[in-house]
Design brief:
about 100 residues, Alpha-Beta Plaits, about 25% strand, Rham/fucose_mutarotase, L-rhamnose mutarotase
Length: about 100
């Protein structure tokens, strides 16, 4: 199953957010893979709109698996300063979009 979601990055933090994602911690990458995240990518617009696309058999289960890792807590704490989430953790603020068309 493929999932798409949005988040909002603070416009004054776009460059640093991009730099951080150019060097995601190897431990975080390993945790995502182990939790069932596949073919995961993020797209960032100049106004801070972040669009993510990920494949996972069960997104909720993949999120719970990440919750069980120490590295995810550290990563979310660091990423929180970049996001407009109303004080919620970034990984709990994702707005999942409903797919209405797919050309395969």
């Amino acid at each position: 199953m493929r999932w798409c979601f949005t988040l909002q990055v603070k416009t004054n933090r776009l460059d640093e957010y991009t730099r951080r994602h150019a060097a995601v911690w190897p431990e975080m990458l390993d945790a995502l893979r182990a939790a069932g995240w596949r073919n995961y990518s993020l797209w960032l617009r100049e106004d801070g709109l972040l669009v993510g696309v990920v494949e996972a058999d069960d997104l909720a289960a993949a999120q719970r698996a990440m919750d069980a890792t120490a590295v995810n807590g550290r990563w979310q704490a660091e990423m929180a300063e970049f996001m407009d989430t109303g004080g919620r953790a970034p990984d709990r603020s994702m707005q999942v979009l409903r797919e209405v068309f797919h050309l395969d």
